[in-house]
Design a protein that fits this description.
Elements: E1 2-8, E2 11-16, E3 27-35, H1 43-46, E4 57-65, E5 77-80, H2 90-93, E6 114-117, H3 119-124, E7 126-128, H4 135-138, H5 141-154, E8 161-165, H6 169-180, E9 184-189, H7 192-200, E10 205-208, H8 213-221, E11 225-230, H9 235-244, E12 245-253, H10 267-271, E13 276-279, H11 285-296, E14 306-311, H12 315-324, E15 330-334, H13 337-343
Parallel strand pairs: 8-9, 8-11, 9-10, 11-12, 12-13, 14-15
Antiparallel strand pairs: 1-2, 3-4, 3-6, 3-15, 4-5, 5-7
Helix pairs in contact: 5-6, 5-11, 8-9
Bound molecules: zinc ion (2 copies).
């Protein structure tokens, strides 16, 4: 089978490897759709583990199940989480699933025609897709679950003013989710096209990041924001976040500047204003279930986020589109499709 191996954003190779055989508690799935995540192109985050097969946002179909697998059968369409928490350690018991101390075997990268699903993920990380969710839409389950978790941690609820800074794919999902919860959503970005997308997807006010964003928010709403969600690693955005948050508000770092960058926090100012600062980078099982239900009920629709669909052979082009970030929002790779097109 073909897989894509990522060495860095500019060196991604298609390689031929043996198709894995599932063990008795495992299964083999073919990857119909796999999203390129914003985190897949963050080199400081990924390079320490390179070369690697990227891809953790999948929509797949079961091809073969091991003798002891009773819950799934060939033909089932599934989403599979990239890893599952143990649910037993101190962190899991306190709901901090992303930092579980006993994460078992992870899902091999989704930029491959087939994936062998390890036992722990067959048992606790696989979700059968409802008819209402296509394999392309399935690639949004994990990123939406991450947005769900960050808004859960921030206590987002209807009637609040939520500012989303950075309107790439994950920023736009935050916009959609907050709008679905009847928040007043304000979006900001440096890119006009993304601002237009944010306005189409539920943002009531969109502001060019080059403007004085805090002043515009105050002018439009009469006060500052209850929740500010950072969805870009740009340093200028951090300063903007400090200015946009109201008394009693929350700043959520959903994206962060690189590991060598020091961020100054106006702590003294925030102390007397009861401002909270949160980080959130991943999701847990309850968030995945919420994301599936939100998509199934069409409360959050995702089709308008898909700008590109490419075969596995064009994955380098897909990564380039995401790295440039100008023309694309969501780029989906269709690893299995290549075989179909070759058969004809
Ligand atoms: Zn992701
Ligand atoms: Zn745990």
């Amino acid at each position: 089978m073909k897989i894509a191996r990522w060495y860095n954003n500019h060196d991604i190779r298609i390689e031929e490897v043996p198709t894995p055989a599932p063990g008795s508690n495992e299964m083999l799935v073919k990857v119909i759709s796999c999203g390129i995540c914003g985190s897949d192109i963050v080199e400081w985050y990924r390079l320490p583990r390179a070369p690697l097969v990227p891809g953790h946002e999948i929509g797949a179909e079961v091809v073969e199940v091991g003798a002891s697998v009773a819950d799934y059968k060939p033909g089932d369409r599934v989403f599979i989480a990239p890893k599952v928490p143990c649910m037993k350690c101190t962190y899991c018991k306190n709901g901090h699933y992303p930092v579980c101390a006993n994460v078992g075997e992870r899902l091999p990268g989704g930029m491959a025609e087939y994936i062998r699903v390890p036992r722990v993920l067959v048992q606790r990380g696989t979700y059968r897709l409802p008819d209402a969710i296509s394999c392309d839409q399935s690639t949004f389950i994990e990123p939406l679950a991450c947005a769900v978790r960050s808004q859960r941690l921030a206590g987002v609820h209807g009637g609040q003013t939520v500012v989303v800074i950075g309107c790439g794919m994950s920023g736009l999902l935050q916009v959609k989710l907050a709008a679905a919860r009847d928040c007043r959503v304000i979006a900001t970005d440096v890119n006009r096209k993304r601002l237009t997308a944010a306005a189409d997807m539920g943002a009531e006010i969109v502001i060019d990041a080059a403007e004085d964003v805090a002043e515009r928010i105050a002018a439009e709403t009469g006060r500052k924001a209850d929740v500010v969600i950072l969805c870009t690693s740009a340093m200028s955005a951090v300063a903007q976040a400090w200015h946009c948050v109201d008394k009693g508000g929350v700043v959520v770092f959903f994206a962060v500047p690189g590991p060598d960058i020091k961020v100054e926090i106006p702590l003294n100012y925030f102390w007397t204003r009861e401002v909270k600062i949160l980080t959130s980078y991943y999701c847990g099982p309850p968030d995945i279930i919420d994301a599936i239900n939100l998509m199934k009920a069409r409360t959050v629709q995702v089709d308008d986020l898909i700008t590109h669909k490419l075969p596995l052979n064009d994955i380098a082009k897909g990564f380039q589109l995401v790295v440039e970030g100008k023309k694309s929002i969501k780029v989906i790779i269709t690893p299995y499709e290549r075989i179909i097109s070759q058969a004809h």
